[in-house]
Amino acid sequence: MTHNDCVLIVEDEFLIAELLTDMVEDMGLTVCACAATAEDATALAGQHRPRIVLMDVRLSGEKDGIDAALAIHHQVGSKVVFITGSQEAETVARIHQDHPAAILFKPITFGQLRQTIETISA
């Protein structure tokens, strides 16, 4: 299964998506697309086949980021880094249903994101 050396950002808050895009590009990586819904995320992942997906848990629409991550992991096999503001036990347990490469809790720093991406890319 071949992956493109790019990052898909899934975040429904525009300013956070822009911040994550800047962080990823500052690391010398390419952002292939941004999505605000689980449906768009799944479609864009199928189209771009990203190596890494930065996934917010709470998204616009009926499905959430965990639903999208499960579909993307099954279809594309991308490494998913969850970025969430929720530390509720139920949410974290649902995240672990998928095989998360990492979980980061908002607010995140550039250093946290860089270290996480370097670790899962090694």
UniProtKB/TrEMBL annotation:
Signal peptide: none
Domain Response regulatory: 6-121
SUPFAM superfamilies (alphabetical): CheY-like
PTM-bearing positions, type 4-aspartylphosphate: 56
Domain of life of the source: Bacteria
GO biological process entries: phosphorelay signal transduction system
This protein's UniProt keywords: Phosphoprotein
Protein name: Response regulator receiver domain-containing protein
Organism of derivation: Muricoccus roseus
